[in-house]
Amino acid sequence: MKILLVAPCQKSEQRHSTMNIPQLTLSLIAAMTPPKYEIEICEEVFGEIINFEGNYDIIGITLMTQTCIRGYEIANEFKKRGKIVVFGGIHATSLPEEAIMFGDAVVIGEAEDGLWERVLTDIEENKLQSFYKLDKLPCLQKHVFPRRDLIKCSSGKFSIAPIETTRGCPYNCDFCTVSRFFGTKQRHKPIEDIIRDVKSCKQNNLFFLDDNITGDKVFAKKLFEALIPLKKTWVGQASINISKDEELMRLAKESGCLALLIGFESMTDDGLNHYRKTLKTIEENVIAVKKLKDYGIMTMASLIFGLDSDTIDNFDLGYKFLTKANPAFFQACVMTPYPGTPVFNKLKSEGRILTDDWSKFDATKVLISPKNMTPEELYEGYNKIKKSIYSNKSILKRSLSHLSLGLKKSLLFFTLNKGYQYRHEDSLKNNIIRNKENDLVDFDVTKYVVPYMKKQAIKLNDSCLCEIES
Fold first, then answer.
1. What span, in angstroms and rounded, lies between the C-alpha atoms of 416 and 52?
2. Most buried among 85, 197, 204, 217, by the most CB within 10 A?
3. Beta partners for 107?
4. What is the pLDDT of residue 431?
């Protein structure tokens, strides 16, 4: 039997030659697949073309919220050809009853511990169920190594290998899907296995996919010590609390850390107190960013705008922090209510979500009514701060304190900043996303893409009506 695994992507979001972080999901599923199956992977983000006429028996599609409509369109094309479609991923886990309308089965959550193999066995024995879910989160001490021969690592000027060392996040932020999918307790892979995986990578640049690689400091220190002899460079995500541990920062640098994405989320008093990932004051966070730079580690500061604690003054606070801290990079996000999160449930119940077009849920578009400002004020403030920080003047000014960090970091600095500048200019076309007038925000995805089986039922019904009339 032949299996096609697909990572869908809207055509407007495909990045054929710009920097893109490869994913592990499909290569892990491929590694869980018994060798008697033939596996093919297609990732649309790289512009790869799906062969709908291929002789596949099973189609596996991983769904994120912003890619699910495209995923459902792909499923329709394969259902039209009589193929078996299985969904997985964060969106399918959050809304399995929606996903099942377009396919034959949904894997809810993680697929390890024999779950994916059980799906395949049930297909062979003609006993496929609609939903599959583990009773508990899998232990990562036993895991599969990704099929690295199937991962596309080259994109733009960099070749980057994705590495996973942990899953789960203890912060449990109310807007984030990570803790709902992977749990609030961090699970670790054995360090010797991680090093073996790293050694298998031909690429010298790594991206650690962990949501907080320094969440467990003891584990992180042991991992960094083991990485030092490999002479690789890497970027990852961490909490700013790393700045409290001199040894941890030193080991991160020695192990090859170039930069860390740090979610500061909000610089309001309420935001700083609510999201425990940040330090207590703007000044403390400014000092922390500078301390990381002293250790040769660049910071990508991530802020979210449109939280219920935000007012229009939040943009000035964010700008004040960014100009004082002088981080290498800035990731600007708009509060986006992803399904399955407390924020989604709250905003949905209050009627403050402006659209149910899942393809717009990518954290760069205004699609909510904030609590303390209008959508227009959120849109204007969000674009203003991006324009300021992504301007050529700002990029050059911030570069002065980062060029001394070396050629590789300088290249990364300008590549990412120019990339963010380009994407900001492109995003100005989006404006505020609302459903059309008289189009209810009812989260009925079938008004955007009709399931193939429903189309067939409609055709059959119309045919029967015609026969009766004749």
1. 35
2. 85
3. 132
4. 81
